Amino acid sequence: xxxxxxxxxxxxxxxxxxxxxxxxxxxxxxxxxxxxxxxxxxxxxxxxxxxxxxxxxxxxxxxxxxxxxxxxxxxxxxxxxxxxxxxxxxxxxxxxxxxxxxxxxxxxxxxxxxxxxxxxxxxxxxxxxxxxxxxxxxxxxxxxxxxxxxxxxxxxxxxxxxxxxxxxxxxxxxxxxxxxxxxxxxxxxxxxxxxxxxxxxxxxxxxxxxxxxxxxxxxxxxxxxxxxxxxxxxxxxxxxxxxxxxxxxxxxxxxxxxxxxxxxxxxxxxxxxxxxxxxxxxxxxxxxxxxxxxxxxxxxxxxxxxxxxxxxxxxxxxxxxxxxxxxxxxxxxxxxxxxxxxxxxxxxxxxxxxxxxxxxxxxxxxxxxxxxxxxxxxxxxxxxxxxxxxxxx
Amino acid sequence: xxxxxxxxxxxxxxxxxxxxxxxxxxxxxxxxxxxxxxxxxxxxxxxxxxxxxxxxxxxxxxxxxxxxxxxxxxxxxxxxxxxxxxxxxxxxxxxxxxxxxxxxxxxxxxxxxxxxxxxxxxxxxxxxxxxxxxxxxxxxxxxxxxxxxxxxxxxxxxxxxxxxxxxxxxxxxxxxxxxxxxxxxxxxxxxxxxxxxxxxxxxxxxxxxxxxxxxxxxxxxxxxxxxxxxxxxxxxxxxxxxxxxxxxxxxxxxxxxxxxxxxxxxxxxxxxxxxxxxxxxxxxxxxxxxxxxxxxxxxxxxxxxxxxxxxxxxxxxxxxxxxxxxxxxxxxxxxxxxxxxxxxxxxxxxxxxxxxxxxxxxxxxxxxxxxxxxxxxxxxxxxxxxxxxxxxxxxxxxxxxxxxxxxxxxxxxx
Lengths: 393, 414
Known about the structure:
The complex is a heterodimer. Chain A is of the alpha/beta class. Helix content of chain A is about 35%, strand content about 20%.
């Protein structure tokens, strides 16, 4: 029964604010609950919100097991009237934002605290990979147990074969992100990265080399969603939400992933915002591997399918460049703190649009695009989402 | 082309034996449908009973029509290798010591997209044939072979991890006095085993085929009586550390049912030679087999049971014999669980009446010992776990699947 989609309502009157980052560490002996707690503690300290003021709570975490958001309300001492647990990995931030925005807009909650946090114990990465999903257990992990490196190696290899992208093109993305990260105090990788060093790095799963891979770590990211007038009354700087999209298991018949769900919904993303790609001042893609950033450039409409390598060659991607991208260094330089990796770009975008960048500020940044991608269930990432955010007047 | 195998060097007796590790063997219950196919060397995928969609990875619901009528069926195994990678860093200890490891994505002509281990001769963009193999954990994995045979294909190191090829391995045939033991000896020698130890009880006592047996290349006759614990233990102490494949050819076939016999003497012999004989071999050689499951190119790899297909359903004409075979079958399932931590496989070869004197009055078709031996060697090369050799074995297998009660009645009136 195909039918006309109802026109989407705007997110007018709602803002995202209070960006929080709990500095990452490579390994942590603490639990996920500890990291979630540090994020809420910092959020309370900087915003003045008391735990009892937080009436909405959205959580994304891989390592909170056996707990979910509900168990953590008791652990953390929250009594929210709106609760969400979003197990969408790299798409968690965007999805948390759009769900929380509707809850606030409809009056179901006043202050939604959105948290993405994970710990990283020695050996917890292996354990997460080996039991990540049923399909991964049955049909991916037993094949060399390369984890996401192997899955993205196949996607990258196919992309290179098909569209002529070269390692230098991926390298340009990684090197620019490292430049952006060098001013970010908590980025785990701040030493200079040259294209020569990128190309000479040791192979991990051909054609993936060391600097194509994110480093698993522990960390937390958080933000608050509330009404624009509430934020103003509190004296908080917030960012408006111009449009969002979300899509899962898009294009299941593609034999190998060359596009994500954005390609299905990008038209709606731009239409809802009333903008074209050239209006965007900076882009935060989900960069677990640089090929995925390229897919996002294409599928979100910055260039055509297969055109991302040329697009990258034609732009400078640093914060002072023609196409500022992953302005805090992205996961490739800051680290991948589990589900917090799905929050990294969003929290950074809130900072850029409220003049609160921890690293370098993108000059005159008024509108930013944040994109999320996650959950390699078997051979491809299933979850995708994106949001266009704007400086609040 | 694969690099041909070279005869492994003599092991330095002072060197540490590499201990067996296994790739992750956990699978969903549904995915064990692939293991069932791999155990028999078949290639099967789930096929939707409502819309005929062919699916992978295994599911409980058809993603095209939401049907739950999904059954594993034989499927065209050919497709194209879309993309490959060479994994050089793995989180898993088993793969970590076997790096680098090639895997790829295969698009089958039948539709599904399958992540598979790659044979060294597969080429990106070209056609491949998928097969299901049991890996060292005993669970099924997809393995892509070149669509056409290539030279020394069997020597591929990844493939050798998934199979029990006797080439350059050391084999023990537990009883060389009978026709099956002699046929096995010949077949394993021809398959390139580096040495075939052949057990003979009371070697001073002549037996038919004795002269021919000792003329087979790379054969070493050893004293072994599977009914004598001391004899079995002694051989294990001498040679247990350098035997990679054990084929239990001990047999004791006597016609007659349970009541008809009137006493236990034959039944006792049957149990002593077949069931306790198997247990003696397992207990004496099992620990070394399991310990040596990853001991280089000529690691311990398989224990072979030759079982009457009537282990699966009693044939009253040979009723007490069938019961002893059933005991062996049950013990083999236990042995599988016990040898699996070493990555060592238990191959059960089921067969009907043989072309031997104790089936003299049974009408054809009957199986020649040489055919059984050939099938066992082929199954080890293929890495199978259960094979049905000959027409009768297949017939019983199919009838058992269709209606076990009918088969019980039919065998009871034969």
